[in-house]
Write a structure and sequence with these properties.
The structure holds two protein chains of two kinds. By secondary structure, chain A is an alpha+beta fold. In chain A, 41% of the residues lie in helices and 21% in strands.
Chain lengths: 437, 443
């Protein structure tokens, strides 16, 4: 089922495999839409659920409510308290992971074919009938408070928090989804019930199942699983107004290595130039040893263990982001090299060879992602959230191939803006002027 | 509940159409290089790994970190490849590559389309014997590993604490030295030290090839013969004999203070036996012991310390079964607000004492065994994890047969086995207790 067909490509060096994942789009009698990839080789199913909205739907003054609510889904449901629920999950050897980000609540489930029905009943109880017992609230709240305290002394988290505050102003993205000690300690049970109602609704759920299950089985499973959730939830948040003034903001913290985050405005996933920007980013700082940032900052100068850039396409903001860490007496040089590279690639563009190398890497690496039920469920649910069609899997490499050198270099000129490249740095950097208070 | 469990167990056992034995084949080349092939034909992808039976614990004195430093340097040039050309070539073929170093092994891997396997073998076998380094490689890459140490250790009080605690745990054995190296010795690492380690340990008779994915064993054997089979064995390969730990006669304690600590915790460890070739039973009992005591929210530590007495915010237990030499059984308790580290530690000791009196709850044990059975099904979905499992085992004194016997050995563990293992290992005189905390602030 996860077969790939070898396709002949332009380059003779690399013949990238093509992913031929057969995705069925189904609609349940109850009106839920889902994607299914049947794979009967191994007797289990990976099920991914994503609810759009996530922690950004926290009500005013209730920061951290969605996060705490999600943390409590597995802490007691229906007639089971937290311990009974955990024991039941273990007995079935199922696993349910509940996760929250600013834009999404994710539920990743994995269960055996043999006891699928029992596993789904358990999962349904946690999603539809969570108890939010007072004892459980106290216990999980204490864990969240511990995480909040830790973040306040973690250089990476400190940089992230200062960055979000600077860039996102009044938007929910501006504050950590964990909430603050003050906001979390004042949360009450009713706030969690409200957060549950606001976020876990059928009008915003995306579903993907991969594994040992048929179309009909999945249909009835999903209606059973999600039929008890409300039809609609809270309105989704407005986009953020992004503040990227350029320059450097410092966060003083006594630690030997400075941790920097940097960003400039990004590009929407739907933009016709997205793939050109994606390739450009790959060449600039996209994670491999071959990127210009890795070559210049790490390989040639030994200034860091890792430097990366990436396109962050959030529901409410598009940024071109990056990160680097260097000893306090070397971070200034790392920042300078990154700025220089940012300007150099904008002014001089990339070479034909760099473009070809990026294409062979990206087209070759794409099918390698589809290497298991879990990863495929993950990819296909993300595709739905991006509003991509099922045949995107087949066509995606052609879209990468279609990008020309002119496209990439035009996008570099139009989009890259060193004057707005904004650094937020935690540590005690030497020889680096901070320009943002 | 118990009846339901029994039924489930039978169904799961019956539902294993493809056993690990069918998926895995292994053989040895003439020069002594071991080969493991793991088939998964669902996707035309292959993972190609070479594991060396050499890690940080095999380093000579005063060059700590050289095993890991050399791992970085293997991405520099050889007689046939320019510096950086290895990874660039993998990337140009749509693959990704990396490497990692541990106490007992160093491993290099690439993930690529299955039809690129030969190219990977050509390059990997080349750098096994033809590495060419110069002084400029050394200086820049040493800066990189110092920054890596800054990132992983110096910026992280928990990591600094673990380093100090390991040093206290192992008085005589080289597991007490950090994999990445002590900073003062890393600063002095030079070309000579790197090449000495390379010449000593990088040879086919000290390596394990693991190929996993859409490949046939015969095809792997043919290619392996061509690229690895022709390399000469190192006849002077040293035996892996490390200094052994003396009998511990007094408990050891340390307190590590750092103003960056936001959440203090207690870490307790006991020296413990590891999985040995043909003798994995005790390690199996310890694995289940760790699960019972601290493996998640139904464990005894969580029940007692998080749910009932609310002494702790988090608890866990961890036992690293796969290791060449003596390993450790570890417990962690993160106290709730208002609970001191002493109280947290006392509560942990109470839990351990009560467990020694109460014994094993068989229903709890059955749930854990059920999960182990199911994990064999889930494992077949992740060929990378399988490849790692075999690589780790074969570089840490185990065989393919040991790996395949392990699930059944776990299933056969009895409550009596667990209590006997617990009685042997959980001896306060043979423990190390560490407190991680922030210094008290005086106004």
């Amino acid at each position: 089922m996860i077969r790939y067909i070898l396709a002949i490509c332009l380059s003779l060096v690399a013949l990238p495999a093509m992913a031929d994942v057969e995705v069925k789009e189904i609609t349940t009698p109850g009106g839920l839409e889902a994607w299914l990839v049947e794979e009967h080789n191994i007797p289990f199913v990976s099920l991914e659920l994503r609810f759009r909205g996530g922690a950004s739907l926290d009500a005013p003054g209730k920061r951290g409510a969605t996060n705490l609510m999600v943390g409590l889904l597995e802490e007691g449901a229906g007639d089971m308290d937290a311990r009974a629920f955990a024991r039941a999950t273990e007995s079935l050897a199922a696993s349910f992971r509940y996760d929250v980000s600013d834009d999404t609540i994710s539920i990743s489930a994995r269960f055996l074919t043999e006891n699928q029905e029992d596993a789904v009943s358990l999962l349904r109880e946690s999603l539809v009938n969570p108890r939010f017992d007072e004892q459980a609230i106290q216990r999980v709240r204490a864990q969240v408070m511990s995480n909040i305290r830790s973040s306040l002394k973690d250089p990476r988290d400190l940089a992230g928090m200062a960055f979000d505050k600077l860039v996102y102003g009044e938007h929910p993205y501006a504050t950590p989804l964990n909430g603050t000690a003050e906001s979390v300690s004042s949360l009450e049970r009713q706030d969690l019930l409200d957060a549950h109602k606001a976020t876990l609704a059928r009008d915003r759920v995306f579903i993907s199942a991969v594994g040992d299950i048929t179309e009909d089985e999945l249909k009835s499973l999903l209606d059973d699983l999600l039929g008890g959730l409300p039809e609609t939830g809270a309105p989704l948040p407005e986009p953020a107004e992004v503040n990227l003034p350029g320059g450097v903001k410092g966060v003083d913290f006594e630690t030997p290595q400075s941790v920097a985050m940097f960003a400039q405005p990004g590009i929407d996933r739907d933009d016709p130039d997205f793939f050109a920007a994606y390739i450009l980013n790959h060449i600039l700082g996209g994670g491999s040893f071959e990127s210009r940032l890795m070559q210049e900052v790490r390989e040639k100068r030994g200034l860091t263990y890792g430097v990366y850039s990436y396109l962050a396409d959030r529901d409410g903001a598009q940024l071109w982001m990056g990160s680097v860490s260097s000893a306090n007496d070397r971070i200034a040089e790392a920042v300078k090299v990154i700025r220089d590279e940012w300007a150099r690639i904008r002014d001089n563009g990339v070479t034909e060879q760099e473009l070809q190398d990026a294409k062979t890497y990206l087209t070759g690496a794409y099918p390698l992602r589809f290497d298991g039920n879990g990863p495929i469920a993950d990819i296909t649910v993300a595709m739905q959230m991006e509003n991509l069609p099922t045949d995107y899997i087949l066509n995606r490499n052609a879209m990468v191939e279609a990008v020309t050198l002119e496209d990439v270099n035009r996008v570099a000129q139009d989009l890259l803006d060193p004057s707005r490249l904004t650094f937020v740095i935690t540590g005690q950097p030497k020889g680096l002027e901070t320009t943002i208070n | 509940m118990r009846l339901l469990l029994a039924c489930l167990a039978i169904m799961v056992t019956a539902a294993l159409p493809l056993s690990a034995e069918d998926q895995v084949s292994n053989f040895t080349l003439h020069n002594g290089m071991e080969v493991v092939v793991i088939e998964d034909h669902r996707a035309p992808v292959v993972v190609h790994m070479v594991w060396y039976k050499a890690g940080s614990a095999d380093e000579k004195p005063s060059v700590s970190g050289v095993a890991h430093f050399l791992e970085h340097l293997l991405f520099k040039g050889t007689e046939n490849l320019e510096s950086g050309e290895f990874s660039a070539t993998v990337a140009r073929n749509g693959g990704s590559d990396n490497a990692f170093t541990s106490n007992d092994y160093t491993a290099y891997f690439q993930r690529v389309a299955a039809d690129r396997l030969e190219l990977m073998m050509r390059m990997e076998s080349d750098r096994m014997v033809n590495l060419q380094l110069d002084e400029s490689d050394i200086a820049t890459e040493r800066d990189v590993i110092i920054e890596e140490r800054n990132q992983r250790v110096e910026n992280n009080p928990s990591a600094l604490f673990r380093e100090q605690k390991d040093a206290v745990q192992y008085l005589n054995h080289s597991y007490g030295i950090p994999i990445i190296g002590w900073r003062h010795e890393m600063l002095e690492l030079d070309l000579e030290a790197a090449l000495d380690y390379y010449d000593t340990f990088y040879a086919p008779n000290n390596a394990v090839l693991v190929v996993a994915g859409d490949v046939q064993p015969d095809e792997v054997r043919e290619l392996a013969e061509v690229y690895y089979g022709v390399l000469p064995a190192n006849s002077e390969l040293p035996e892996r004999v490390r200094a052994k730990e003396p009998v511990q006669m007094a408990e050891r304690r340390l307190t590590f203070e750092d103003p960056r600590v936001a959440q203090p915790y207690v870490s307790r460890s006991y020296l413990a036996p590891e999985r040995d070739n043909g003798a994995q039973e005790k390690a199996a009992a310890l694995t289940l012991l760790a699960d019972l005591l601290g493996g998640g929210s139904t464990s005894i530590m969580a029940e007692n310390l998080q749910f009932e007495t609310r002494t702790a915010v988090h608890t866990s237990a961890y036992y690293r079964a796969t290791s060449l030499d003596d390993t450790t059984l570890n417990f962690f308790v993160v106290p709730a607000p208002g609970v001191s580290l002493q109280q947290a530690e006392d509560a942990l000791d109470n839990v351990l004492l009560e467990f020694m009196e109460d014994g094993v709850d068989t229903e709890h044990l059955e749930r854990i065994k059920m999960q182990i059975r199911a994990s064999q099904i889930y494992a077949r979905d992740d060929v990378n994890a399988l490849a790692n499992r075999y690589g780790r085992a074969l570089t840490q004194g185990l065989t393919v047969e040991d790996v395949q016997a392990w699930p059944d050995i776990l299933q056969a563990v009895t409550p009596e086995d667990i209590m006997a293992a617990a009685a042997e290992v959980l001896d306060r005189r043979k423990s190390v207790t560490g407190w991680l905390t922030a210094p008290e602030v005086t106004q």
